[in-house]
Design brief:
Rossmann fold, single chain, alpha/beta, about 200 residues, binds glycinamide ribonucleotide
Length: about 200
């Protein structure tokens, strides 16, 4: 298994995927490559982005499988065929089950648009906005068997402004996502992330 071989799981527009590709292409993330992009939704813009960069783009249709385990076994087959050492969840809107998680524990990283452990799950930006927080942000974390509960790698704060809407706030959070996700990937592929219980130590 090669830790510089990356797979990205997506469900939508893929702007975080794009930030990873861009940071690899400009060598901010050195010696790594996105080998495959897998979407659980057909026709996503994320798949188009992959193709534009000559990256294999695969739609895996959950409806073809009787169980989540069957669906994830197919994803696992693709990951293993590409000798993937790091899996990124970049707007992948499903909870990863044990079939996929167990083989990639400690080697699967998610980006979430809120300051965890607050506002896990879907629409983190909207949840935070509706709650009336004054500061929100984004979190990059290792995936464990909970919903957005794994060890935190990097967080970035974003101040909520008086005249914000949830959409405007989400855009400013997204700008920060595009910075901290590539940074976490760089640290991972350089072997600088050490998981120590709930804590992630950064050896740099
Ligand atoms: C991002 O804001 C990401 O943090 C969020 O989905 C968006 C995907 O955008 N992920 C989650 O909410 C996961 N629970 P993108 O497709 O443009 O990267």
């Amino acid at each position: 298994m090669n830790i510089t071989n990356i797979a990205v799981l997506v469900s939508g527009r893929g702007s975080n995927l794009q930030s990873i590709i861009d940071n690899i292409e400009n060598s901010t993330i050195p010696h790594a490559s996105v080998q495959v992009v897998i979407s659980d939704v057909d026709g996503t813009y994320a798949l188009e982005r992959a193709k534009e960069h000559d990256i294999e783009a695969v739609f895996v249709n959950q409806n073809k499988y009787d169980t989540k385990a069957g669906f994830e076994t197919e994803i696992l087959r693709i990951l293993e065929a590409h000798d993937i050492g790091l899996v990124l969840l970049a707007g992948y809107m499903r909870v990863v089950g044990p079939t996929l998680l167990e083989p990639y524990k400690g080697r699967m990283i998610n980006i979430h648009p809120a300051l965890l452990p607050s506002f896990p799950g879907l629409h983190g930006q909207q949840q935070a906005f509706d709650h009336g927080v004054k500061v929100s942000g984004c979190t990059v974390h290792f995936v464990d068997d909970g919903v957005d509960t794994g060890p935190i790698i990097i967080q970035r704060c974003v101040t909520v402004l008086e005249d914000d809407t949830a959409e405007v706030l989400a855009d400013r959070i997204l700008e920060q996502e595009h910075k901290i996700f590539p940074e976490a990937v760089r640290l991972f592929v350089q072997g600088k992330l050490i998981i120590d219980g709930r804590k992630v130590r950064i050896a740099e």
